[in-house]
Amino acid sequence: MKARVLVRLKPGILDVQGASVQRALHGLGFGEVQELRVGKVLELELDGVAGEAARRRIEEMCARLLTNPVIEDYTVEVMG
Amino acid sequence: MNFGVVVFPGTWSDCDFHYVISEVLRQPVRYVWHRDRQLDDFDCLILPGGFSYGDYLRAGAVAGRSPVVEALPEFMAKGGLVLGSCNGFQILCEAKLLPGALMRNECLQYRCQSTHLRVENAETPFTRLMRPGQILKMPISHGEGKFYADAETLRRLRDQKQIVFRYCAEDGRVVKDANPNGSLDNIAGVINEEGTVLGLMPHPERASENAMGGTDGLLIFHSLLGSLVEDGSFLKR
């Protein structure tokens, strides 16, 4: 089965990368961009687990390695 | 005092630390591979700078879960001291052995330059030969050294005197202009509650000989040696 973890900087934490990309977009004429934040996507392929059990395993992975709770939030999407 | 210099794949300051400890301080030192868990021979372990595991995922993230780092709590419980510089600081935060996190520099540039640091806490085994408010000169070399902690954690760090070094101007003023990476409160180095783990972004090993432009980094090493000689209290084992 496949799953996807979306990792974002927590709200309120300055995203200097996002601000830089936003400025670049403004330079290209996309002045309507009011805010831009950069996150990351982790795509996982798992074997031998599914559904809720898989979600729990992935949440454990997030807690132990994939995310840093001091600065990041995450969501898990399990895709069957 | 027996030093161990931890080496991860991608560590780059290991040889500099080894050189300073063996050739400048004339103390016994050996390298410790990141898979080692046997740390009983050491009084102080150094986590040097570099790009451990390529800094993939986050700086220090993978190294922060390595066998040698997992063995650190037991090492500390037995009285061992841990010093993390640059990537070593990032690793210690990732391992939750130090509070906070280190993020991309606010200027988005890799900064390799000399900095001035103000000593905020001179009552640690790492700083006991310094004066409170003393200004030190040490280089930095990093792209992800912006210290961040939430408001509650920052308050606790201040209350418990866990902020050890802050970036300052040459005359000691702690101002924004002297902050090379956007660190919260100009924080350059913090210590854990127990006073056994120090993390700092600057490189003391690159400021340990006059030929390198200064010797302020030696104050950290000499403080450590003094801690052993003068009370030995951290050597409980």
Largest sheet of chain A: 3 strands, antiparallel
| Largest beta-sheet details of chain B | 9 strands, mixed
Q: Give the full name of the CATH homologous superfamily of chain B.
A: Class I glutamine amidotransferase (GATase) domain
* Poorly predicted spans of chain B: none
Unreliable runs of chain A, pLDDT <50, ≥5 residues?
A: none
CATH fold call of chain B: Rossmann fold
N-C termini distance of chain A: 6 Å
Secondary-structure element pattern of chain A, one letter each: EHEHE
Order of helices and strands of chain B: EHEEHHEHEEEEHEEEH
Query: Radius of gyration of chain A, rounded?
Result: 16 Å
Number of strands of chain A: 3
Percent of residues in helices of chain A? 25-40%
| Computed structural class of chain B | alpha/beta
The SS-based structural class of chain A is: alpha+beta
Q: What is the CATH homology-level superfamily of chain A?
A: Phosphoribosylformylglycinamidine synthase subunit PurS
Assembly type of the chains comes to heterodimer
Shape of chain B: globular
Based on the structure given, which CATH architecture of chain A is correct? 2-Layer Sandwich
Largest interface: A-B, 11 and 19 residues
Helix content of chain B: 10-25%
